[in-house]
Amino acid sequence: MMRRYLSTQYSHTMSFQSLSLLLFVTLIASPAFALKKSYIVYFGSHAYPTQLASVHLDGVAHSHRTFLASFVGSHQNAQEAIFYSYKRHINGFAAVLDETEAAEIAKHPDVVSVFLNKGRKLHTTHSWKFMLLEKNGVVHKSSLWNKAGYGEDTIIANLDTGVWPESKSFSDEGYGAVPARWKGKCHKDVPCNRKLIGARYFNKGYLAYTGLPSNASFETSRDHDGHGSHTLSTAAGNFVPGANVFGIGNGTASGGSPKARIAAYKVCWPPVNGAECFDADILAAIEAAIDDGVDVISASVGGDAGDYMIDGIAIGSFQAVKNGVTFVASAGNSGPKPGTVSNVAPWIITVGASSMDREFQAFVALNNGQSFKGTSLSKPLPEDKMYSLISAAEGKVVNGSATDALLCKKGSLDPEKVKGKILVCLRGDNARVEKGQQAAAAGAVGMILCNDKASGNEIISDAHVLPASQIDYKDGEAVFKYLNSTKDPKGYIKAPTSALNIKPAPFMASFSSRGPNSVTPGILKPDITAPGVNIIAAFTEATSPTDLDSDHRRTPYNTESGTSMSCPHISGIVGLLKTLHPQWSPAAIRSAIMTTSRTRDNRRKPMVDESFKKANPFSYGSGHVQPNKAAHPGLVYDLTTGDYLDFLCAVGYNNTVVQLFAEDKQYMCRQGANLLDFNYPSITIPHLTDTITVTRKLKNVGPPATYNAHFREPLGVSVDVEPKQLNFNKTGEVKMFQMTLRPKSVKPSGSGYVFGELTWTDSHHYVRIPIVVQLSS
Q1: Does the annotation count 227 as an active-site position?
Q2: Is residue 294 classed as helix, strand or coil in its secondary structure?
Q3: Contacts of 509 (CB under 8 A, 6+ apart)
Q4: How far apart are CA 738 and CA 589, in angstroms?
């Protein structure tokens, strides 16, 4: 599969020179009205060692200018156009071109692909008690923490909005010297220490896209949004006793690897046309992080899934994994719609989001005696009494839209109708905290936010600007029914309090993006789910918890929800596993996390979705993470760089493209390379029509043992495994098995996917993977 892309796709046969290039072109508005766009022109990886003297790196940059000069008229023009030159792990450059120039580059025989530079979003909707909880002053610690030394000396990088260095989560108290292998640096506006050892920013792709001039607001590694500090502290924040959000949720905060070193790579900026983080900047940051010496890269960003050769995150993350750096990314917040999962490259650990067993409850009481559990982090009502209730639709301005008013949109509410009352709004369209702001602006004393049907039972704790509570869909229906049943409805919102041991938990968040994988349906994504709802973590003090201009409050800790929050939970666990098992590959670490996960909640029943209906692997992947068990998985499904190259061959890329992608001129696609034999820790079969056999290999990472196979067949599918027993005589030994799947003569009613699982066990370890099959007639 050889592809070229320039706005739309171009394909033709190509030859290649020894120098490989990667070109980015960024959308701007030109005074001459020539259309400037952002493209990636990809030639593959470097074919020379990455540790080069500066003179050699300068030579690479010169070769980039020479290549571009042949299209833009001169070296001078090329130098002015180029704003990044990727010179180490990723070979290429980023430049501003018009459409004609980009089209000519797309025709060049040495070019693999030309495609628009993607703008991406942060995956937050705007707290799991990671592995530590303070109860009655007693700190309960994870055994994995003890075994892994809290992730000490592992270096975790975060691609995000920067860092708020003054946060106590980034204190270096109790730390020794910075590891000698570290080559990173800190921008002058961030005072780094022995904990926070790196802080850099990458803005040239963003500035080229927007056409904005660079100024001090774009030349900073500081976090003015809160997202970066939140995700970074979730992954590796230090222990902070007494953390809370306006007095609620008090406890000891910490990240997954609380003693790991951390580095912030700021790649996201104020949104433009819905995009905040651009591939040109992301790739520059990934290349820098690899060269700096990080062990883990955490990326809570993403966009629509696409072909791997035109996806900046897929290209950059491959280079990371190839260099032994585990890459963790969020699945996206486009759920519960099927087929929305992003960051689907098989070398990425892709993370969905689920709830936890803690809530910040704010009960809603009605004058008819009904009471409903809601959630909030807002202040209490001014008086302990029943207040008049009004549906936001009834509070609309004259000649206004009742639909807009019900959603509490700007300008839709009449203060004369709303003032002094509790306003009942519907979730959807605009931000939850924005609804509260509009209610407050109209004079409402409080707000009840009712879930729409799509949100189901997922309720989010926000620090609203007025007393508020968010309730689920069913309870919201009851509130609206009450409003319609009486001429004088009244109600009350109780002050929020923390509650633990909530059931069911975990359940899938409605926003968490779902499979199937739209790029390679034969690879299950997401891989895993982790807590991503109402997560307490560090926050910037440069803005308010709602990010509303009218909100002047500040808090060092805040709750956020999204796969942006679940991603760093896994990144923190990866840091611990990297410390405990430094010899493990990124694929072995992912396998350990996936095969030891669980698919049952704290009721010992199957996990459910936001509507409390049974969830499946398209929402949770292999299941909900269990960090302690991941430390000792027994067996792993390992993968090497060569296996990933075989994967690319199996899905249709030709040999030349794969060679350049991996900078391996000796690699040859195996004849008959088959995706069914790709050693992924899940088995996914789209369009099963006849008997097929898949092959997998297991590596023993525990003591000698004998493992037996147990499986649960997907409905309507016959499954057989051979051999049914694997005897491992030593650590590191690898054994192969095959699974044969055949559709049964009598198929289940309906159509679509069915699910099962395979578990290998020695009675001490349970190595489980999901089986996903689409039955076709």
Answers
A1: yes
A2: coil
A3: 335, 352, 353, 354, 355, 458, 532, 533, 561, 610
A4: 23
Q: At 593, list the tokens.
A: 């996390």
Neighbours of 627 (CB within 10 A): 23
Q: Which of these, 343, 379, 601, 591, lies nearest to 493 by C-alpha position? A: 379
196: β partners: 262
pLDDT at residue 48, as a whole number: 63
Angle between helices 563-580 and 227-236 (to 10 degrees): 30
127, 537 Cβ separation under 8 angstroms: yes
Q: Answer yes or no: are the C-beta atoms of 327 and 348 closer than 8 Å.
A: yes
Q: What is the C-alpha separation between 288 and 301, in angstroms, rounded?
A: 18
DSSP state of 4: E
- Tell me the C-alpha distance between 582 and 143, whole Å: 18
* Buried b or exposed e, range 229-257, using 16+ CB within 10 angstroms: bbbbbbbbbbbbeebbbeebbebbbbbbb
pLDDT tens for 300-317 read: 999 899 999 989 999 999
Side chain identity at residue 395, one-letter code: G
Supply the pLDDT for residue 23: 40
Task: Give the active site residue among 169, 512, 564, 566.
Answer: 564
What residues pair up with 301 in beta bridges, in sequence order? 122
Q: How far apart are CA 388 and CA 559, in angstroms?
A: 30
Tell me whether strands 119-122 and 113-116 are parallel, antiparallel or unpaired. Answer: unpaired
Ranges in the chain, pLDDT < 50? 1-33, 127-141
Note the pLDDT tens digit of each residue in 240-274.
Answer: 999 999 999 999 999 999 999 999 999 999 998 88
Tokens of 259: 């003693």
Known catalytic membership, residue 113: no
Please say whether the beta carbons of 448 and 425 come within 8 A.
yes
Q: What is the identity of the amino acid at 539?
A: F
- Cα distance between residue 30 and residue 109, in whole Å: 29
Catalytic residue among 126, 227, 464, 765: 227
**CA-derived radius of gyration, the chain:** 27
At 766-777, the pLDDT tens digits run: 999 999 999 976
- Alpha carbon 597 to chain centroid, angstroms: 18
DSSP per residue, 332-353: -S-TTSTT------TTSEEEEE
Q: Identify the active-site residue in 46, 113, 142, 160.
A: 160
Which amino acid is residue 385, in one-letter code? K
DSSP state of 610: T
The DSSP element (H or E) to which 327 belongs, if any, is strand 326-330
Residue 422: is it exposed, middle or buried by C-beta count within 10 angstroms (0-12/13-18/19+)?
Answer: buried
Residue 141: exposed, middle, or buried by beta-carbon count in 10 A (0-12, 13-18, 19+)?
middle
- Contact (CB, 8 A) for 736 and 712: no
Strand pairing category for 275-278 and 119-122:
antiparallel
Q: What is the pTM of this model?
A: 0.92
Give how far Cα 448 sits from Cα of 16, 459, 508, Å.
62, 12, 23
In this structure, what token pair is assigned to residue 169?
Answer: 């989560």
Measured CA to CA in angstroms, residue 318 lies from 57, 101, 444, 640, 670 at distances of 21, 29, 52, 11, 20
Q: Cα–Cα distance between 24 and 41 in angstroms, integer?
A: 6
Contact 376, 432 (CB under 8 A): no
Return the pLDDT at 264: 98
Residue with token string 């900046």: 312
